[in-house]
Amino acid sequence: MQAYQSKAARVAPSAGCRYAVATSRIIATPSTTKQVPCASVTSSPPSLSFPGTLSERAASGQYASTSIQRRRHMTEDGLGLEVLTSQPKGQSLEKPALLFVHGSYHAAWCWAEKFMPWFEARGYACHAVSMRAQGNSDRPSTGKAAGPLTTHTSDLAHYIQTEFIDHGLPAPVIVAHSFGGIVLQKYVHGIAKPGTQTDRSKATQFGHYPQLSGVAYLASLPPSNKEMGMRFVKKNPMLALKFMWHSMTRSVVTHPDTVAPFYFSHDIPRAELVKYQQQMAVSSPMRLVDMADVSKSMPIPPPPSHAPPAFILGGQDDKVVDTEAIHELAAFYKVDPVILPGLAHDVALDTRWEHAAQSLESWLSSLKLSGAEAKGHRSCDLNGSCTASWD
Question: What does the pLDDT average to over 288-305?
C-alpha cells in the first residue's frame, strides 16, 4: 500500500499487458509491476494532481491524521479500481465504515480533500472508490462509456463483499454524491433480502447485492430525473441552455468560470475553485455511464421494503439538483430531507461543506450496523486487509 502523496499513481500499459504503479517519489521497477489481463486495460488513465492539502492541514493542527492510503481493487472482470482509504487507530465497530461514491467529473480525490480527514478524525474508517474509467481507475477495452448502471453497482457489490463481508466486518454506509446517487439507488433496488447469505459467487448479481448499514444521498439526482430538467429550464433558461451545451460537449469543467455557476457557491476562494476545476477536467476521460441505458432505467423503482436506513441532503443554492428533486428522493424513502442554506451542488468541496458533514455525522450516530452482532474493533494490516475482533 502506498501513502497518499502529492501525485496520483501513474498507470502505463507496457509489453505483455503489464502496468507499473508508481507515485511521484517511487520509480516503477519490476517489483512494483502487477500482471493484469490484456483485455482489461486499453490506455493509461490520466495523471491527476493531488495538492498536498492533507499535510498542510495536519501541520496546522486542523487534522490529526494524514493516513489516507491509495490502493487498487480488482473487479471480477479484471479492471483495477482506484481506492483511497483511511483507518483511524483503534476504530470501534460501533461506528460504520463509510464508502464514498463520487458523481460525474469527479473521482475518489474529491472525498480526500475534506470529508475523509474530517470523518477519520471522528473515528470513522473511510473508503472512496473511483468508478471504472474515472480518476486513476482502468478503462474498459470497448464502448464509449465506462459501463451501464448495473456494471457500477456490481463493482460496488464486489468491493463490499470482498473488503467487508468476507472479513466478518459490518456492512458499510454508502455515501453518494450527485450522479453517484443514481448508482446507489440502483444498488439498493438490487440488494439482498435480510438473512440472505451472500458470497463472491452471487454478490455481484442483481438481487444479491450485500446489505448495507445505511445509505446517504448528497445532492443526488432524483429517481425520475425528468421534471427536474424542465424546472431548471423554467427557473433559469439561459443557465439551463449553457448547462445542456456544456453537458453535450463535455466542456463544463474546462475552465473555472464554466464550472463555478453549476457546482460551487459564489464565495468559494478562487484558488480552491481553480484547483478543483483542474482535477475535474481530467477525472472523467470516458463518460461514467451510457445515457441511453440510464434512460431505460428511469424512473428507478421505489426502494424495497428491506432497504437500509436513508439520509438525504440537498443545498438550497444548488443550481443542478433543486430542492424539489431532493424532496422527491426523500419521499421514496419516506424520510424528511435536510436542506442546507448557502450550500451549492458540490457538497463535499463547497464553501459550507462542513455543515453537510456535521448533518451526516449526526445521522450516522443513530445507526444500528448491519452484520454487527456485538461490540468489537477492526484491525487492518499494511496491505489494507481488515478483520473484526469481538469483545
Answer: 85
